[in-house]
Amino acid sequence: MPLSETAAAPQRTRRAIIVVVALALVFGAWGVWRVVAPAPGDAHQRLAASEDARKALQADHAELQQRVATLSRSDQISREANRELQGTLAERDEEIAGLRADVAFYERLVGATAQRRGLSVHAITLQPQSDAAWHFQSTLTQNLNRGAVSTGRLSLSVEGSRGGRLQKLDWDTLRQQEDAPGIEYSFKYFQQVQGDVFLPEGFEPVRVTVRLQPRSGAAVEQSFTWAQATGATPSATATE
């Protein structure tokens, strides 16, 4: 064998080994990629699963929002119902207090231990109807002559100030009528007499006096402060 061929043989052998090694590396890398890399089908499945999970989360979120809205509405309804209940209870308490006051009034008037009194003004209340008009209601009583009927007429006068000067408005002025007749009353034990009066502009009332003129006998007068009559202060004993 020539010397040149003998020298070329090892080179061919090395090239063959390199080619084999390279091919082995290529096939090995391809195998590893096949093992590690996800198949196209797996990627689609994962994407579909993610989409399903997102839709499920959206549905849960919408359900939770609906539940929160429902609970909020229920809480609002409960609060409104509670306010209405509290208002109803307050009205009932006020009604019961009024009934108790009425019972106490009747017991003092016609009870076995009631103090005997002749014609008198138990109370008067005034409520504004406009800037000038006031509606009054006066409770008249008598239990001295049981069974006897008290008849007569009621009138008012109001004391106060206007422009820094003291004034007393008589019944004609309050009724805005010359020779205005008093309001009739007729009762055995008690009666509530009501009507309207008018105050002039700029007049500041201080005291109201109720005058009862029976058909027979002397007139009866009782005075109340304007604050008592309008409920601005608790009721107190009237001055006669």
TrEMBL record:
Coiled coil ranges (UniProt) are: 47-74
Domain of life where this protein originates: Bacteria
A Pfam family annotated for this chain is: DUF6776
UniProt protein name: DUF6776 family protein
InterPro entries hit by this protein: DUF6776
Supply the alphabetized keyword list: Coiled coil
